[in-house]
Amino acid sequence: MEHRFVGILVNDSWYRAIPRGRMYHESLSNYEHAGRQHGVVPCFFRIKDIRPGQREIVAYVRTATGYRKCRIPAPKVIHNRTLYTKNRRPLRDIRALIDDGKLVFNEWNRYGKHRIHEVLREDPSLREHLPETRMATPDNILKMMETHDQLILKPN
User: Fold this and answer.
1) Which one, of 5, 8, 3, 33, lies nearest residue 18 by Cα?
2) Pair type for strands 77-80 and 5-9
């Protein structure tokens, strides 16, 4: 059976942690679960592991015995989870992949959580599913504590 791969572009420190299967800020199992739901296999690699025109890459893929480096067809769809802010080279490399016909989601991912919430609120079909959200000023926190049993505070 041939697998359809979706690429998850990660940074070096995340890549080194994949064989252990546990990440600090990310859930590999969520990627695996979503992949099963959509009939794709997530593969994890770094920007230096892929180049425009490349037919195959080496990426981490979940196997029966854990995450292993495998040679696979270069994915046509890539989800960018990296944070390249100081070094512009990776941003140019991502742009080159797009120019090569790859579909890259989250090409630029430096948007604040509050801004993303506002964008999602603009879609009527999503609005009712979003939690009440406010900027964490002292007054807003007190108001939210009066109306909710639990709060989640996140840095923006």
Assistant:
1) 8
2) parallel
